[in-house]
Amino acid sequence: MAAVIQELDPRKCPEAIEEVVRLEKKIFPKHESLSGSFHEELRKKNCGLIYAKLGKGEGGGQEEVVGYVMYSWVSSLCASIAKLAVKENHRKHGYGEALLRAAIQKCRTRKIQRVCLHVDPTRTPAVSLYNKLGFQVDELIECYYSSDRSAYRMYLDFDD
Length: 160
Ligand SMILES: CC(C)(COP(=O)(O)OP(=O)(O)OC[C@H]1O[C@@H](n2cnc3c(N)ncnc32)[C@H](O)[C@@H]1OP(=O)(O)O)[C@@H](O)C(=O)NCCC(=O)NCCS
Prior knowledge:
InterPro entries: Acyl_CoA_acyltransferase, GNAT_dom. By secondary structure, the protein is α+β, with helices and mostly antiparallel strands.
């Protein structure tokens, strides 16, 4: 079954935020996790979250959030992808790509020239996905996440 990709309205779907927070805790190590600050971040006007939701199956299964991407406007010309994740048992179904495309599309609706992000180079699936959608490595930042974990700073420029 295909997931529905939608923008989160924190006032209308607080339960979706709770599901995202649970996923964030499960997927990312503590020092990389935004789970403690999601509510605060989403109250900011320069921040948004798009999530993928699977509907009830024919067998009457529960609706579930299977992935999310968080973005923010860093300046009038630059946006940032703060987080992207898909639930482990739902990976390789195209949801990560669909979420990232939706976030990029959202950035295109503003007069943004560049989308940037940081990613641990050892996160091969994520780096591969970012490359696939046209992101390039700007530089390697040593000790970005912790003393032994670096990050690629990556960017995607809009030509138009
Ligand atoms: C990165 C992530 C979001 C990808 O989600 P996904 O739904 O599995 O990805 P998709 O099915 O949409 O795949 C799209 C592309 O991603 C890349 N990709 C996905 N899984 C991959 C894997 N296991 N190995 C290599 N590349 C992979 C490929 O380029 C793929 O394109 P292709 O199918 O044409 O080869 C997911 O692996 C994840 O949540 N990882 C843990 C969290 C994380 O690392 N987040 C990024 C840092 S914030």
